[in-house]
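Our working data are protein records whose layout never changes between entries. An example says more than a description, so a record of this kind follows.
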Amino acid sequence: MNTPEELLYSKTHEWVKVEGGVATLGITDFAQEELGEVVYIELPEEGDTVGPEAPFGVIESIKAVSDLISGVTGTVLEVNTRLHEEPEHVNRDPYGEGWMLKVRLSDPGEAELLMNAAEYRQMIEEA
């Protein structure tokens, strides 16, 4: 399982990379392995607001349908629209071409509530 050290992680298996008040989000390698082959992704539109309390989209695989939940609050700046036509990028490269959203953070300090890579790995091992 690939768990990059420079990223932050949510309990719902999304990753967050914060750079200058903007967060890039996607699902973890663990999550995509558990889901299996991703066949459909529904994402919000630019300008929408996301937060840790409500789903921002849906991911569907050959095994299951799951909500996508942001670990941070903010306004969607960019959506990886390529995933609408090629959702398999989430399986092939969840931390690269499989990114989902870029969000302008409402409260950059909120990211401090997320787990680091070691904490995320420990959560998975204990599950």
In short: Residues 9 and 114 are 6 Å apart (CA to CA).
